[in-house]
């Protein structure tokens, strides 16, 4: 009976999710929340960030970021060509993010590693790549599915062997899922966002080779980092090698974009 209940729970979980294909052709499981819900979550998180963090009032910085964002988002499929809202945060950490609902945040610290418009475009296009690849939806779906299955497993073990065994199973299972299931998926998403972002930047007329220089700057500015298998980001040197190899194949796209009049002049 317990095995039958477990099977039914897993079956219902699978039915609740949808199978789709990412921009790179990878199979994804999504659908835990609707796109409207994702957009609402993105808008809420963005509003909270703007209320909590100090915003840059530097008109040049804001115009610079806006220019790069506009050039990139014009290359998005029709369904994603909304008016993306941009915020520049007065924060020294070199970071940026994009959220469902067309929200982009950039820390002023990014300018210390993104030395020109092409490098800034590599950062922003990568973050937009996460959104258009539905990575937020995918992560929520997988996290909800993992939590549900762990809860079922703990309940079954608890009823068979006592609450202590059930609690221990939940804790150990959670750690294992985080290390061997959720984190590797995040690395897959990071690599996919690199692919999608580098393509977007090239289509917008930004030099795809500058993504390599950006990551060289990031390595130079960074300190120690966890081992690759425990990180949510690919190994930096491996990432640079992949970006460099991909840049060569994207040069015709970049040159065609320039020939077609996509010549962004955003400054820096």
TrEMBL record:
Residue ranges of domain Peptidase M48 in the record: 60-246
Cofactor: Zn(2+)
Keywords: Hydrolase, Metal-binding, Metalloprotease, Protease, Signal, Zinc
Domain of life of the source: Bacteria
Cofactor note: Binds 1 zinc ion per subunit.
Signal peptide stretch: 1-18
UniProt xrefs under PROSITE patterns: PROKAR_LIPOPROTEIN
A Pfam family matched in the record: Peptidase_M48
Family designation: Belongs to the peptidase M48 family.
Name of the protein: M48 family metallopeptidase
